[in-house]
Amino acid sequence: RISARDIDLVFATANGPHRAVEAASLEIQPGEFVSLLGPSGCGKSTLMNCVAGFVKPTRGEVLLDGQAVVKPGPDRGMVFQQHSLFPWKTVKQNVAFGPLMAGVGAREADSVARTFLSLVGLSRYASAYPTTLSGGMQQRVGIARALANYPSVLLMDEPFGALDAQTRSMMQENLLEIWSEFKNTVLFVTHDIDEAVFLSDRIVVMSASPGRIIADIPVRLARPRT
Ligand code: ADP
Ligand code: ADP
């Protein structure tokens, strides 16, 4: 369960303080899929980075299952628009990296990596290097990597933003399939309203200058959700 309470985030810039997020409060229940929707620059990434622990709010706090977030942790899997895979590691090594860092043994980490590569349909590419894969495949590796620590929370920042329309819609369906298996709590940043409607249980809308939450809307769609 994610609780962000009254978050302000002010960046110090050359032109003085810049308020990216103002008085943002947000509750996400376990297993809920919530999209954070709004125009570019409205503060979505900044608010998500507070939940991730990359950025410390100027005011307010983020709680994860009642615990204050102070830094990133393996309980939060992250997927970015730019996949940020290690180019010098193979696909499988990229996915195994998180578990290894979390202290899982080499053999177990390898087996976890295989499991998640199979889940995203990339078993055949385990020994390939990321740069040899297409953009969509690289994002699937990114998702496998984010899931490999069995995080309770999945934070996704425009993960499909750089993909062509067809790949994007395939990835959206893949993501829902995967999510229905793990039921992680998901916070998904997008500026695409159709994507938000297709994927989420709830849409939280932000507006710029300063970044405020202006609406919090349940989504009702005639599509199967198990
Ligand atoms: P979004 O994700 O909705 O596109 P961001 O959270 O990336 O928006 O940015 C919100 C605002 O904060 C923008 O005006 C952006 O330029 C500014 N901003 C983001 N990161 C920084 C930073 N590190 N330093 C200064 N300003 C920033
Ligand atoms: P988004 O795709 O969310 O809009 P951006 O492309 O705006 O992200 O920002 C990419 C990176 O640059 C982020 O790490 C953000 O914090 C940083 N950034 C954005 N705006 C500024 C700014 N005005 N000054 C410094 N860093 C910024």
From TrEMBL:
It comes from the Bacteria. One of its GO terms (molecular function) is ATP binding. Keywords: ATP-binding, Nucleotide-binding, Transport. The keyword Nucleotide-binding applies. Residues 4-226 form the ABC transporter domain. Belongs to the ABC transporter superfamily. This is Sulfonate ABC transporter ATP-binding protein. The chain holds residues 28 to 253 of 288 of the full protein.
